[in-house]
């Protein structure tokens, strides 16, 4: 599945919605799972979907908007996309390895382009937690690089650490950016840290190689919640996610 990271089709002058008022594609009234769409919303959605039906970029629009929470996109109303998202989440645990790695690479590219997991969710329909899991699996599947080599997407200033400490435990180079992070755990051999970094209004967690972590002021490791066996930890998390799905 290939996704244009810029959604360039949205700027095509021949798209069916180019000259239609935006409100036509947003049915009135509450349509969340506890408040099914009213008849007025259903009628309005059908009117919008008839416009989409003749659009030359309908399939591209539908492909890229599974995570859109409101409105009609690509000939699908928000309650229809919600059901598709539920089906995708339920099937994720049984995806073959090749499919999981392909999604992981896609989610990584989308996150690197935007810097926000909410943007990844909007484009793919995957929850932030599932997207991060798939990205982690993809990264772990890649050949181990030399310790001196910067991570993929890094710029030449990768080792240009900030002089002043942040407000947490350490500076971490992750996802092509320098981030202020809490350290939650470390593998027994000390090769990887498990870090928590701000991501929108919440936090995301990731494994980071030791050479891309700089404890403030050269201090010793901060107090850790646990010393993690990475393989065992990932196995337990994966089993819990499958059970939840």
UniProtKB/TrEMBL annotation:
Give the principal location in a single coarse category.
cytoplasm
Q: Please provide the record's keywords in A-Z order.
A: 4Fe-4S, Disulfide bond, DNA-binding, Iron, Iron-sulfur, Metal-binding, Transcription, Transcription regulation
Superkingdom assignment = Bacteria
Q: Which cofactor does it need?
A: [4Fe-4S] cluster
Q: Which residues form the 4Fe-4S Wbl-type domain?
A: 16-83
Locations listed in the record: Cytoplasm
Q: Which InterPro entries match?
A: 4FE4S_WBL (IPR034768), Whib (IPR003482)
Which Pfam families has this protein been placed in? Answer: Whib
User: What family does this chain come from, according to its entry?
Assistant: Belongs to the WhiB family.
Provide the protein name.
Answer: WhiB family transcriptional regulator
């Amino acid at each position: 599945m290939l996704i244009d990271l810029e959604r360039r089709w949205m700027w095509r002058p021949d798209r069916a919605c180019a000259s239609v008022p935006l409100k036509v594609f947003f049915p009135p009234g509450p349509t969340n799972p506890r408040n099914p769409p009213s008849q007025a919303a259903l009628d309005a959605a059908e009117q919008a979907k008839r416009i989409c039906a003749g659009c030359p970029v309908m399939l591209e629009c539908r492909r890229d908007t599974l995570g859109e929470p409101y409105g009609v996109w690509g000939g699908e109303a928000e309650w229809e996309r919600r059901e598709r998202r539920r089906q995708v989440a339920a099937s994720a645990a049984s995806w073959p390895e090749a499919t999981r790695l392909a999604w992981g690479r896609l989610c990584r590219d989308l996150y690197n382009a935007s810097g926000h997991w909410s943007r990844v969710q909007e484009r793919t329909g995957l929850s932030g937690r599932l997207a991060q899991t798939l990205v982690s699996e993809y990264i772990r599947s890649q050949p181990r690089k030399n310790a001196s080599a910067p991570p993929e997407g890094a710029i030449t200033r990768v080792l240009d650490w900030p002089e002043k400490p942040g407000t947490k435990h350490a500076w971490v180079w992750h996802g092509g950016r320098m981030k202020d992070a809490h350290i939650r755990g470390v593998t027994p051999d000390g090769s990887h840290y498990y870090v928590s970094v701000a991501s929108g209004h919440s936090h995301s967690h990731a494994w980071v190689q030791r050479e891309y972590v700089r404890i403030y002021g050269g201090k010793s490791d901060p107090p850790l919640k646990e010393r993690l066996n990475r393989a065992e930890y990932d196995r337990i998390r994966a089993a819990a996610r499958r059970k939840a799905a």
